[in-house]
Amino acid sequence: MAAFYDEVMAPVGVNIAQFSLMRTIKRAEPVTLTELGRLTELDRSTIGRNVRVIEKLGLVTLGRGKDQREAVVQITEAGQKVLDDGAPLWDGAQQTLDERLGADTMRILRTLLDSL
Predict the structure, then answer these.
(1) What is the pLDDT of residues 39-48, one digit of tens each?
(2) Which residues of 28-38 are buried (b: 16+ CB within 10 A; e: fewer)?
(3) Residue 89: which residues within 8 A CB-CB, separation 6 or more?
(4) SS3 sequence, the chain?
(5) What is the pLDDT of residue 39?
(6) Which of 5, 14, 60, 65 could bond 18 through an S-S bridge, CB–CB 3.0 to 4.6 Å?
(7) What pLDDT digit, counting tens, does each position of 8-31 carry?
(8) pLDDT per residue as tens digits for the range 48-94
(9) In terms of pLDDT, which residue wins out, 114 or 85?
(10) How many domains does the chain have?
(11) In terms of residue numbers, what domain contains 69?
(12) What is d(CA 21, CA 13) in angstroms, rounded to the nearest whole number?
C-alpha cells in the first residue's frame, strides 16, 4: 500500500510517510519534536531523524521554542507548496483505492489500521 502512495506522491518529491508527517506538523505547528512524536506515536529519536530528512529538503525548519532545550518544527514556504500540490494527489489516491477495493473494504481496512 505504501508503494502505491509513494508512486502517487512522487511528483511532489516526498514519500507518503514524509507527506503524512508534514500534514501532522502543519496541523499542530509550531510543534515540538516531543509533541510531534506523541502525535505520530513514534519515539523522539525516530521522529527527529524523520524531521531532519525533510528539513534537508527545505520543507521544514527546526528552531528553538520558549524552552530553549526543545526543538520546534514549522513548515516552510516550500513545504507548504508540497502540501498544497500534494493534497489533490492524496485525495486522488484515496478515491482510486475506494474504487479498486470498494468503500466497505476501505472502511474495514481503515478500522484495522486504526487499531494498530
Answers:
(1) 999 998 999 9
(2) eeebbbebbbe
(3) 8, 9, 11, 12
(4) CHHHHHHHHHHHCCCHHHHHHHHHHHHHCCEEHHHHHHHHCCCHHHHHHHHHHHHHCCCEEEEECCCCCCEEEEECHHHHHHHHHHHHHHHHHHHHHHHHHCHHHHHHHHHHHHCC
(5) 95
(6) 14
(7) 999 999 999 999 999 999 999 999
(8) 999 999 999 999 999 987 777 889 999 999 999 999 999 999 999 98
(9) 85
(10) 1
(11) 2-114
(12) 14
Place of cell 473494504: 105
Three cell numbers written together for 113 = 489500521
The cell numbers describing 114, all together, are 486504526
> Which amino acid does the sequence have at 8?
V
Would you call 114 exposed, middle or buried from its count of C-beta atoms within 10 A (0-12, 13-18, 19+)?
exposed
User: For residue 114, what pLDDT band results from cuts at 50, 70 and 90?
Assistant: confident
Q: Which amino acid is at 26?
A: K
Q: Residue 83: which CATH number?
A: 1.10.10.10
